Amino acid sequence: MAATDTISDMLTRIRNAGLVGHSTTKVPTTKMTKSIAHVLKSEGFIGEYEETGEGINKYLVISLKYKGKNRQPIIRTLKRVSKPGLRVYSNCKEIPRVLGGIGIAIISTSKGIMTDREARKQNVGGEILCYIW
Questions:
Q1: pLDDT tens across 20-36, in order?
Q2: Closest CA to 117 of 90, 99, 96
């Protein structure tokens, strides 16, 4: 079944896999999900990710990271902000800080998908996709 909101689908799959302790999860591949996975990897929230499959059956296999003996997931919360029914935009001066800088906001800008810190540094605003901490 095709998901109409691929970003929410990706976040939900990562959240559910982390809650039950899976080491990997499969997400349908789009340019947006690849970009978000790249940001999550560069920020240290996930391990490696790789693209598998052919044509319409392309998936990103994302390896999740855990900490401690109890295997607590690194990603504690994934919150979708801008949705298809209600888009949320922010200029560079009004980009929110997630948990006082502990978490990140992933933002879709004219210069690509980036974190809130990178957007402030490059002085660009855009659509706030999600918060992660």
A1: 999 999 999 999 999 99
A2: 96
